[in-house]
Design goal:
By secondary structure, this protein is an all-alpha fold. Helices cover 59% and strands 0% of the residues. Mean pLDDT is 80; it is low at 2-14.
Amino acid sequence: MSNPWGPAPQGPQRQGPSPRTVAWIIAGVALVVVLVRTHHINTFEILLICALIPSVILHEVSHGAMALVFGDDTAKRAGRLTLNPIPHIDPFGTIILPVILALSGLGVIGWAKPVPVNVSRLRHPRNEGVAVSLIGPAVNIALVLIFGFVYGYMVPMQDKIYTNFTSVLPGPVWAQYIFVLGYINILLAVFNLIPLPPLDGSAVLERLLPASALPGYYRIRPFTMFVPLIIVVLDPSALQHLFVPVIDRYSRIVS
């Protein structure tokens, strides 16, 4: 997701994770181990969490990499153009929320710590800002195509599995994981294209607004960042209207 708070501050950036983040990571891993050993989460949910983490990291790194192409090196200076998961982990979005959703049976979704982007440093901020935002979902879509191809054409027919979005039938774990990698990237792409701040789709809405309306939009934008989460909490089935048709088609195509 793009940074909802506007330009990142200048000056020295923290190059490593804070002790609090490390503590949350250790606690999250310990919690997952306990839940696995006590059979509170199943194989499918474990695979979802394992697929979510690298997928959201690639999503966020792509934002910073695209910004660097257009002239903003804020993410690079902050040490965020790395595939090392530690600097990207958001304690709530990467650990707590996915585990809670897995336990509730609502599926798994989450996010990494937003990569800092200073839009004002882009050569053409309004146009290139849209590209920086949309590259994240584009990367997720590319991953769907890659893993869908691998699963559809390289996994033997007898090893393919069927999913009902909460569990998988017995089969090789490696084949299940390839399927789930495509599955989770569809969720990330569709969710982030919703045109509500701070989701990436809001960049299109922002670009369509006339310049005279932008000051007012920027004033209310920080207060709208919780709207997608509130929608999910109040009506968990709301997103199913977006997710299920796409996931169902993905399942039919690759299977």
